[in-house]
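Standup notes
- DV: blocked on the single-chain target, sequence here:
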Amino acid sequence: MEISMTTEAAWAWNYILQKGFALDGVSGTSVRQFLHEALGFDDEFIESTVRTIFLNNSPVDDLDETYIKDGDRMALGSAMPGLVGIVMGRDNFYKSFRSGIAVKDHSRRDAAPARLSMKVFSTLAVESGRGLLGRGILVDADLLAGFLSEKKALLLEGDGLNADAFIARVQGLSGKVPVRVTFA
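- DV (later): unblocked, structure below
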């Protein structure tokens, strides 16, 4: 689904990025490779901006030796404030304080389609949101319909339909729907 919204709507999509969406990848891919391929992040952006990564609720330090699989849950964020933020941050001096909860499964799976549940938080959502939305994400149809209904005044068109017709179409869908969003 191709969605066009006003520039002012870009900030509102942070709600969807934080609430949750899905991305497709390949099982057996390293976390770093997934960030490259599915999210379009380059190494410089990953090192400087993506400071907090959780895979299935466990902090990730080694992006090259931690692998994804179908059904995984990944949460990304920039640096978090305070002591907890420092300890949970990626690959830092204090990571030993959380060694009991860090990712321990570093086994690589055979290549196969993988769908991951994603959340992107904090300033990382602001900095990467437009790029992610332009590449495309998978959003729960009910969540999308409710979101677009609330932001109808900012919706220019969807798949060539006006706001009312497009929202009605989305309300008739179920499951995850692919969306690409541009802002004009």
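- Follow-up: Strands lie at 2-5, 21-27, 52-55, 58-59, 73-77, 112-120, 137-140, 155-158, 176-183.
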